Structure formats: structure tokens, C-alpha cells
Amino acid sequence: MTTSSILILLGFLLFSALIASSGIVFRPGAWYQSLRKPAWTPPNRAFPIVWTILYILIAVSGWLVWREAGFALIPFGLFLVQMVLNFLWSMLFFGRRRPDLAFLDIALLVIAVALNILAFWPFSRAAALLLVPYLAWVLVASALNLSVWRLNRDRGLFA
Predict the structure, then answer these.
(1) What is the pTM of this model?
(2) Can you give the pLDDT at residue 157?
């Protein structure tokens, strides 16, 4: 592996960390703890573990496609869109306390990740497959978002 390839990989990891920072800036806190949640809600300790792994997979996925195609417009345009939507979700759900808007965001995120997988596939099947756990988790998160919104919309807790 060349020095430039290592630097690009570090760049992808740093970009993923930047996107992940929305989960640090906009923390669940007491408001989230007060919400009704479905019985199948994962334990709080699972979220940082799962997201750390997913952000590493996302970064490596992008790097693998970069190695094959450089910064190809469509695959990396979709990559950027899904990362921005990912960043916005924490701000909408935890920061603005708007599970309704967060659900719209995460529904768009599901579509963007699925399209990103399809766009990465011709360049690197491994890269596309690395995004599949991310898509699966975002699907679970979207169901959780919708459930929390529905279980709490009558409580006047949303901004």
C-alpha cells in the first residue's frame, strides 16, 4: 500500500469520524430517556459500539471504491448525500427533538444507502457489501424512530 493510499484511507476515517461527531454533539440525554420506547429497543450501550463499527466499514468501503475509480461522481455523490443525511438525523432527533423530521431524514437515508450500495457495486463488490450492515442497522433505526414517534406524539414532548 502506498503512502497516498494510506493517507486517503485516513481521510475517509476522519470524514467518518466527523459525521459520527453529530452523535456526540447531539446526545440522547434525559429527554430521550423519558420517551416511551418499544420493547425491542436495543440497549443504550449497543449504539456506540455498533455505530463505531459501521463508521469504520463505511470509511473502508469508500476507500475501496476510491482505489478502483478515484472520486467517481455518482458513487461519491451518493456517498456524500448519505453521510450528510446520517449527520442530520442526530441533530433532528436529539438536537431539535423532532422525531417526525428525523423519520423523514432516515427514510431518505435508507434510500441513499441502498443507492450507494448499487453505485459502489460495479467498482468494488467488497465495498458495496461493507455497506450492507449499515443499511440493515439504518432500517432498524428507522423502525425505532417511527415507533418512538408514534408512542410519544400525544405527550407534548416534541419541539
Answers:
(1) 0.93
(2) 67
